[in-house]
Amino acid sequence: MSKALYDTMAFAMRYWFILIIALMLLTLVLVSRREYRERRAVMGEVSRYIGYLEITGGADDVLGERIGIMAENRVGSSHNCDIIISDPSVRKTHALIVKRGGEVLLVPMHNGDTRINNRRATRAHAIFTGDLVQFGDISARVFLKEPAGEEGGAGDDTTA
Amino acid sequence: MTLRHKSAAAILFFQMLFILPAFALLSLRDGAFEPLTLIAGAVLVLFNLLQYNLLRTAFRHIDRFSLLAAQFLWSLGLVVLYRLSPDYGLKQFAFLLVGTLAMVVAMLLIRKSRDFGRWNWVFMALTLLLLASTLVLGRSTYGARNWIRIGSFSFQPSELAKVLFVIVSAYFLSTRHRLLSFIPYLAFTAVCVLLLVAEKDLGAGLLIALGFLVMFFAATGRVLLTGVGLGVLGAGAWGSYHLFAHVRTRVEVWQDPWSSYQDQGYQIVQGLMALASGGLLGVGLGRGMPGAIPARHTDYIFTVIGEEFGIIVGILTIAFYLVFIVRGILIALHARSVYDAILVFGCTAMLSLQSFIIIGGVIKLIPLTGVTMPFVSYGGTSILASMIQLGIIEGVAEKNGRADEEEVELMGGESL
Lengths: 160, 416
Prior knowledge:
The complex is a heterodimer of chains A (160) and B (416). Chain A is an alpha+beta fold. Chain A is 33% helix and 30% strand. Chain A has two helices and eleven strands; from the N terminus they run H-E-E-E-E-E-E-E-E-E-E-E-H. In chain A, strand 7 and strand 8 form a beta hairpin.
């Protein structure tokens, strides 16, 4: 192979290297940006929830399902509710779950059959992780991320 | 709710499309086909692929994009080094293998970063010992007394001291809040910088001083105090300009390298001419004349890239560093503990400052101080230090990923 031929090849390959490196950079930036955005959307959704209800009793097809609890939720069978439980025993707007201060309150509505740990709720009650709540025939176990009333110190440390 | 990893196969594919043609071209350079060169290229491609996939399997949540950016940087470095001398390329590849091992060790150790605080005094003593060791045992290269030689094995302690400095800083900055409690840390930083200046290793001294300021400001947010620190740094620079002849020479050469073209300005002038002869598109791989540039395989490797690949590729290389920086900062912001956040931020700041100091020095933006270009330059200790820092970043990314996964799974989502 003559030197002139090598020179021509090396000269021509310059464009290839620039093209490939630019494409590599572009793909790297675009893919990482897309993944970051998706991740942020998912984590944003996750951080909106303060806990979840795990269905433990009722129709078989919803058993074990987890429903996220946000800072304010309407529980009922209506489509306007945040936590929708489609069951004939559940009223359209059955109850509210709201976070007030450090507590998470369950507020029964419209004389719907709402029970906490098998005792009928007639006014707002604080609920805690491990409580069993019932809306009509549907029962669910409560899990709250940062247990209400406990110090947020550990949580503060971890979010910095 | 599903956390998904986007496929990065395209990037690895482009990497192959860069490395193989480059080595194929180099294999034809001496007039005859040299199969060994092509094999070296194939080995590099295989190494990158294997490293990426093995790390992904072993650690599911590593930040793949920092790793890919670093992989491109060392692949480009290896192409240039192999072109300069196959011997450099092969040795550098061996360093990379050791570096990968060090990176994995760093990733595993970082899981226990909570316990690092207990070892802080050990780390501090080790840093000072490393820095002081060159005063006694050191050997001068290019005016700086920063090498230690043991038998046929030589290494540069200041590179490892940089990493230890970040670890020590992260401990102090995450546990101290009152001003007075920072005094041991400030004294430690001052001693480190003074030792480096005494060894004439100005690059590392500047790096630690700037790294300290950036980390201090990021961790405490104290504008006034950082301003004072900047003032002290400026006064120190001014003082050393008047006290030390070698600092004065550096600045004079920076202002006008052409007047001392034959001696002190030689390196800068050669670098500038190489960059100029390369122009936008470069002269073509293997067609430049890097033989005239001192330290072409270490500090001045950017000029070889600029000459043979063109300044467009030079700018793209800087952009890869930027990707690396952005990913590093995102990982730091995401970290679950202050200590980890400062650790990652410090490593990112150190690597980016280092690349800024050397590229800025080479293109005559700032006075030239010798540091290596992270991941690209030839050098065992340099690669080792950069890989440990990458390992720290990846280790925290892995922790973040695992915490994210737990949170998502708690809410009934999944992470793929």
